[in-house]
Amino acid sequence: MISRFVPIAALAILAGCQSVSDAMKYEGTPVMRFEYDGDNWRIFDKPAEGKMMTTPSIGKGASAGAASGLTLGIAQTLPEGLQHQEMAKAYIASTGRTCTITDTRKVIYGQYEHVYSCEN
Asked: PROSITE patterns from the xrefs (predicted)?
């Protein structure tokens, strides 16, 4: 019976490694701070690649992690997909660029990557 769960566990571990690997692609990217809808965000923008990763502030992430831990993972209080995308659109507009987000995907809980294209 345990042997049936080994491949599932291995896939979960590999998926987690891939997510961390995706997040590490932004290592060294300057962190932009942006306030949107009463929350502070961290943005790792790579305009030359047309990609950015968005995360809530470190404080929000820490408080959400504590809430999740206290409730054994039931409380998931970080902003998710659509909130990230709306904030990313507002951030891009604040830079004076006219861009369209073409794809948004979850990297890990609380972090999303957005692919965008801008008008020249």
From this structure: PROKAR_LIPOPROTEIN (PS51257)
Rounded to whole angstroms, how far apart are CA atoms 62 and 32? 19
Task: State the Cα–Cα distance between residues 33 and 14, nearest whole angstrom.
Answer: 31
CA torsion sign, 98 to 56 to 115 to 82? negative
Encoding tokens for residue 101?
Answer: 């987000």
Query: In this predicted model, what pLDDT tens digit does every residue of 72-113 receive, in sequence order?
Result: 555 455 456 688 999 999 999 999 999 999 999 988 878 899
Distance of alpha carbon 66 from the chain centroid: 18
Residue pair 108/84 in contact by the 8 Å Cβ criterion: no
pLDDT per residue as tens digits for the range 9-59? 333 444 445 555 666 788 899 999 999 988 889 999 999 999 999 988 654
Structure tokens at 31: 């962190």
> Quick check: 64 and 79 in contact, CB under 8 A?
no
